[in-house]
Amino acid sequence: MELYKNKEWMYDHYVNEKLLPKEIAKICECGKTTIYRWLDNLNIPKRTYSEARILLGDNHSSKRPEVRKKISEVTKGKNNPRWKGGKTKSNKGYIYIYSPDHPFKDKRNYVFEHRLVAESSLRKYNPESKALIEINGEKYLRNDWAPHHINGIRNDNRWNNLSVMLKKSHDRFHTQGEKNPFYGKHHTEETKQKMREKAKKHLINR
User: Fold this and answer.
1) Parent domain of 9
2) What is the pLDDT of residue 44?
3) pLDDT at 86
């Protein structure tokens, strides 16, 4: 159920927290007209013009740090009305997974899925790998290592499609441009298989 349909929640934010309809709309990711309509539907008395003008003064709630923090907390992670299970896709085709406890999470608390798959597989098959670093009793993929998608498909994060290498080597692999013999081409199935076998041997001997 949408938050704005909950009378207790709406009363707390509109009356007690003194948020404006547009601020509540931002939390609920809807239009402010929807908030006005549901204030009527829930029989919550709306402010008079003079009361609204007072809130628009220097003491307006949007200028209070605690209110900004509350809006941020309410719209974060699972509390966001658009929550889709913690999995999202970037415009470049990479998959992100919501991982708020991961030491290398980004500012939105997300981590690349291919990194999570790589570190999970290394823990299982090669826990002593140089690509792993131990933090608080758990091993994670180092920031200076990166998984390479063998078939070039950025959302194909199966372990057998990933080859873990130093980030500088991975960056060089992708930035050689026309100097790269694979520039503008796709690997043949035979080449992909050879890369998989080489990657497995590299991991075993690492």
Assistant:
1) 3-79
2) 93
3) 80
